[in-house]
Amino acid sequence: MKWTELSVLTSSEAVEAVSNILIESGAEGVQIDDSKDFEKLMQDNLSGYDFGLVEHQIEGAKVSAFFPEIVFIPEILPVIQSKVNQLVDFGLNIGQGLIESTEVDDQGWGLEWQQYYHPVRVTRFLTIVPSWEKYEPSQLDEKVIRLDPGKAFGTGTHPTTRLALVALEQVIRGGETMIDVGTGSGVLSIAAKHLGVGQIDAYDLDDIAVEAAVLNFDLNPVASDVHVAANDLLNGIEKKVDLIVANILSEIIVPLIPQAKNSLNSGGYFVTSGIITDKVNLIKSSLINGGFEIQQILNMGDWFSIIAVKMDSEG
């Protein structure tokens, strides 16, 4: 099958927003080449791989989306460009914001993203390993998360994911119930199971994400009992849990806050990530006004994660 690749040249901070725009426009998947991710990948190189042989972004980021040949690109291209330009109104730096178009075949696509995906130690205890590579833990307490990024998701090493993983390591004590909002590849749920969480419900609005999460849960036996389904944030979810984690766009976190409060037990943790510098104060004030106490703020470059606690005594 022939595919059209639309590549948006943008900034590291706009990667997730641009990816969402492309998926919502009908892309079957996205591929991310982020210069900041690559710098971190080289620093954490456990296998001695020569990354100098791999083409990558020197600065900023390139988000590539793949559309099947049945999609009429000239019709959707100006709409995508307009939505990318509008991200400036949300305080995001879109970098060049330019869109390039090329044709690729299915086989070439698959080989392209595999070349720079290698084992990465993302936190003190957690290492992400591609499903096709052999890897043996170097320490007794090291936990391996196997992922197949497929055509829709990255390597799980973006700063927003790393921050969420670090936050989970800090709050999990074992036996908790948890909801993973916007699960994507399922990496946070898999990590939580490794860290001792009990029952997990993972939700994502995108059916492609649900399929990807199911695949990755199958690759990690520890996560075999995670319940995953399509859902819009926490709409219609009645159960209460001890922990909610959401690695999503800042603008989506705000309407999620009252839902999270209703779904958390008293004293439960709400871990949010995907927050850019310009939105930190907005999320902090929204959490405080929504009945949460800020326990800790983590950051990596321009990205932030917030650990908050539900403070009321509701059952």
* DSSP summary, beta strand count: 14
Tell me the strand order in the biggest sheet. Answer: 10-9-8-11-12-14-13
- CATH architectural name of the largest domain: 3-Layer(aba) Sandwich
Shape: globular
Uncertain stretches of 5 or more adjacent residues: 45-51
CATH class of the largest domain: Alpha Beta
The total number of structural domains is 2
Tell me the span between the first and last alpha carbons. Answer: 54 Å
Provide the CATH superfamily of the largest domain: Vaccinia Virus protein VP39
> What is the chains' assembly state?
single chain
SSE blueprint:
Elements: E1 2-10, H1 15-24, E2 29-34, H2 35-43, E3 61-68, H3 73-86, E4 98-105, H4 106-114, E5 120-121, E6 126-130, E7 143-147, H5 159-171, E8 178-181, H6 187-194, E9 200-204, H7 207-219, E10 227-230, E11 241-247, H8 250-263, E12 264-276, H9 280-289, E13 292-300, E14 303-310
GO cellular component, one term: ribosome
GO molecular function, one term: protein-lysine N-methyltransferase activity
Protein name: Ribosomal protein L11 methyltransferase
Note down, in words, how this protein is organized.
It is found in: Cytoplasm. This is Ribosomal protein L11 methyltransferase. Keywords: Cytoplasm, Methyltransferase, Ribonucleoprotein, Ribosomal protein, S-adenosyl-L-methionine, Transferase. Its EC number is 2.1.1.-. Belongs to the methyltransferase superfamily. PrmA family. With 315 residues, this protein is α/β, with parallel strands linked by helices. The chain folds into 2 domains: 2-112, Alpha-Beta Plaits; 158-310, Rossmann fold (3-Layer(aba) Sandwich). It has helices at 15-24, 35-43, 73-86, 106-114, 159-171, 187-194, 207-219, 250-263, 280-289, and strands spanning 2-10, 29-34, 61-68, 98-105, 120-121, 126-130, 143-147, 178-181, 200-204, 227-230, 241-247, 264-276, 292-300, 303-310. Strands 10-9-8-11-12-14-13 form a 7-stranded mixed beta sheet, with helices on both faces. Helix 8 (250-263) runs parallel beside helix 9 (280-289). The radius of gyration is 19 Å and the shape is globular. Mean pLDDT is 85; it is low at 45-51.
